[in-house]
Specification:
The chain is an alpha/beta fold and 744 residues long. The protein has 5 domains: 85 residues, Alpha-Beta Plaits; 58 residues, no CATH class; 170 residues, DHBP synthase (Alpha-Beta Complex), CATH 3.90.870.40; 145 residues, Nucleotidyltransferase, domain 5 (2-Layer Sandwich); 185 residues, 2-Layer Sandwich (Nucleotidyltransferase, domain 5), CATH 3.30.420.40. It is built from 23 helices and 32 strands.
Length: 744
């Protein structure tokens, strides 16, 4: 008999065709296999019993990176194939094949990389079917060499033999290369003049790093800025050049053993560091790195080398390196050689280039263990564009553009969502241009034509304006979804939940249905709509956006709510931090509501508390005060402050009064976080919904999520948190995709 099979899923670029070829040969089956735009197609011919064995082993023995989402089978009459062959890929047809993310260098390639007898010894572009770039080099489907940025490199005879040998692990490895035929390195000075090439480039980079210089290095999805992470004066210079006052830098370590010298990763965090995705993982810091790596914080972002070039550089050094995205302030990561020469000469002393083009930017992913669960904080390299299975089939093709900060966008079709890599903040012209390019790139890759576009409610978001224009140009409906509702839908989709849930969505700010800024929401949700059951009592943000960078403004607003003008004379940290005239002006702005919108934000409450206990009056990046409070949490502190539920409001007056009276200020962060967890428990009991979803930026807070989970699960509730997409605005687009109002 003849069996025709069509497979859809992660089946290209993972060694699937070589695997099928070997399996068919072993079972003496005849036929063919090809990559098609929708996946892998094949026909196998032979005895029915052998065909059944083929089907079973296809699932049992498939390559480790392969994932099959759907299979079509059809038994047909035999046609008399004489052999089994891998045929040339089909270009035409519907693009539904899934592309693999970029995968960290595998152990077999690493062994060859550092073997002086191997022909790819210290070759910075070694790869095989199990590892190497995928998403950042593919130009179109199907995934074949001529459809990638490797098409400009003609294989030498030895690489060609490996590529065509079914027994070789580089059989149909599309980025295959070697020193004779593959990409090459060049080292440039600040002026863009070539200093040297090849191996000598690496030697000079190592010398420069040891001397405390900054080196821009072209990686997989863009450029990194590298420097010595142990020397304070070096890291300070990097901060000055990047105009990055305090936001922490990630650090790349040579090995997991070196990570353990400088940090204290848990077993789970070690597993994440060593995973094929190789994300940045937030771990406890031992305090041995330069203080300016992560000022005032007890955690560092650690990661291991994930490309051969990174491995070569780190292997030759005895020091960890700051490895931060190479970009000008508020601009996307640099990815092209000419762009690097033009933009990085003020940041780097040397620029290490190679001549393999990066098709699309892709920042490093960031993962944090929150409430015992690995939680993506930034989902990008290593994870994107892995598809996310949806809890139901979409009736229309949907483009969801996400929010304005920590942006990702998403395309959705059938039961599948594909989220973009981390875009970043879309709050200026350069960022908006990059966002638009990335949207059309992803749509083009999948030949995707949306039938509806979804965005946030906020009228001032650049993404909202863009979606409105896109809707008009394409003549398709525009749907707007409330910010915190999208957060909960995102969590529901992440965990494939159906039906109603109690959603607790806490973050910095999000535009509410009433035009105020929400951020402390308890919502009864399903995919058709939501009901706002409880929220924190609103307070003013004096100076609007200025309050985000000045926690003392939030603290003063809370004090004005409690004590009115008397607050100006109180002997408290936020009051002492300002001149008398400025205090009076802020009080008048609060009193008259001048540029002081109302907010129910729990994220801003964290800021206010940080100011009142004296740990942060002015911050340099959003969320800084909350992270500092999280660092101070002591699990041995079990008590909490007072609070009340009045109607649909969570009243915070008792919280603040108890906090001000608390003489054990070092325990205040723990008591405050415990209080918030008890608020969640009381509301959950009041609502009586068994399933509770936690989302929003505040739900990155490990002790808070752990405490909420502990209290609620003890009372029989089931708590769901994010595992595939971030709880931050980086996950909004997934929630927007699933709002079913678009079908009504």
């Amino acid at each position: 008999m003849r069996l025709r099979i069509k497979l859809r899923g992660l089946v290209q670029g993972v060694g699937f065709r070589p695997f099928l070829y070997r399996l068919a040969k072993e079972l003496n089956l005849k036929g063919w296999v090809i990559n098609s735009p929708s996946g892998v197609e094949m026909e196998v011919e032979g005895e029915k019993g052998l065909l059944e064995q083929f089907l079973l082993r296809l699932y049992q023995e498939k390559p480790p990176l392969a994932q099959i989402y759907s299979q079509e089978r059809e038994y047909l009459e035999e046609v008399g194939y004489e052999d089994f062959e891998i045929r040339e890929s089909k270009e035409e047809g519907k693009r539904e094949a899934f592309i693999l993310p970029d995968i960290a260098t595998c152990s077999l390639c690493l062994k060859e990389l550092f073997d002086p007898k191997d022909r790819r010894y210290r070759y910075p572009f070694i790869n095989c079917i199990h590892c190497g770039p995928r998403f950042t080099i593919i130009e179109r489907l199907p995934y074949d060499r001529q459809n990638t940025t490797m098409k400009f490199f003609e294989m030498c005879s030895r690489c060609r033999r490996e590529y065509e040998d079914p027994k070789d692990r580089r059989f149909h490895a599309q980025p295959i290369a070697c020193p004779d035929c593959g990409p090459k390195l060049s080292l440039l000075d600040k002026e863009g003049e070539v200093i040297t090439t090849g191996e000598e480039s690496l030697n000079k980079v190592l010398e420069a790093l040891k001397e405390g210089k900054m080196v821009a290095v072209k990686g997989i999805g863009g450029f990194h800025l590298l420097c010595d992470a142990t020397r304070e004066e070096v890291v300070r210079i990097l901060r000055e050049r990047k105009k990055r006052k305090e936001k922490p830098f990630a650090v790349m370590f040579k090995t997991i053993e070196q990570v353990c010298l400088y940090g204290e990763p848990t077993e789970l965090e070690k597993a994440l560091l060593l995973s094929p995705e190789a994300p940045i993982v937030l771990i406890r810091d031992k305090g041995l790195l330069a203080p300016s790596v992560a000022p005032s914080l007890k955690r560092i972002g650690a990661f291991l080398p994930y490309s051969p070039l990174h491995h070569i550089i780190l292997d030759s050094l005895d020091l960890p390196l700051v490895a931060t995205s190479a970009n000008l302030s508020e601009e996307p990561i640099v990815k092209d050689n000419q762009e690097a020469i033009e933009k990085l000469n003020t940041l780097a002393d040397l620029i290490l280039l190679h001549n393999r083009d990066i098709k699309r930017r892709c920042d490093d992913s960031v993962v944090k263990v929150v409430g015992g669960i690995p939680t993506p904080i930034r989902r990008s390299r290593g994870y994107v564009p892995m598809p996310i299975k949806l809890p139901f089939n979409l009736e229309r093709k949907v483009l969801a553009v996400g929010g304005m900060f920590k942006n990702t966008f998403a395309i959705g079709f059938k039961d599948t969502a594909i989220l973009s890599q981390h875009v970043g903040d879309v709050d200026n012209l350069e960022a908006l241009k990059n966002f638009e390019e990335m949207v059309f790139d992803l749509m083009g890759l999948y030949h995707f034509e949306p039938e509806v576009v979804v965005c946030d409610l906020h009228p001032s978001y650049e993404t909202t304006r863009w979606a409105k224009e896109f809707s008009q140009k394409w003549g398709i409906p525009l749907i707007q979804v409330q910010h915190h509702y999208a957060h909960i839908l995102s969590c529901m989709a992440d965990r494939e939940l159906k039906g109603k849930v109690l959603g607790i969505a806490w973050d910095g700010t999000g535009y509410g249905e009433d035009g105020s800024l929400w951020g402390g929401e308890f919502l009864l949700c399903d995919y058709k709509g939501y009901e706002r059951l409880f929220t924190f009592r609103p307070f003013r943000l004096i100076g609007g956006e200025k309050a985000i960078k000045e926690p003392r403004r939030v603290a003063l607003s809370l004090l004005f709510e409690l004590y009115g003008e008397k607050a100006l004379e109180m002997d408290l940290e936020p009051v002492r931090s300002m001149e008398e005239k400025e205090l009076k002006n802020l009080y008048l702005a609060w009193l008259k509501g001048i540029n002081s919108p109302f907010s129910s934000s729990v994220g801003r409450l964290f800021d206010g508390v940080a100011s009142l206990i004296g740990i942060a009056q002015v911050i340099s990046y959003e969320g800084q005060a909350a992270v500092m409070l999280e660092d101070m949490y002591d699990p041995l502190v079990k008590d909490h402050y007072g609070y009340t539920l009045k109607g649909s409001l969570v009243e915070w007056e008792s919280i603040l009064e108890d906090l001000i009276k608390d003489k054990e200020k070092e325990k205040a962060p723990s008591r405050f976080i415990n209080t918030l967890a008890h608020v969640c428990l009381e509301v959950a009991k009041e609502v009586g919904m068994e399933r509770v979803c936690l989302s929003g930026g505040v739900m990155q807070n490990d002790p808070l999520v752990s405490k909420v989970r502990e209290l609620l699960e003890r009372e029989g509730f089931r708590v769901y948190t994010h595992q595939k997409v971030p709880p931050t605005d980086g996950g909004l687009s997934l929630g927007q995709l699933l709002y079913q109002h678009q079908y009504i």
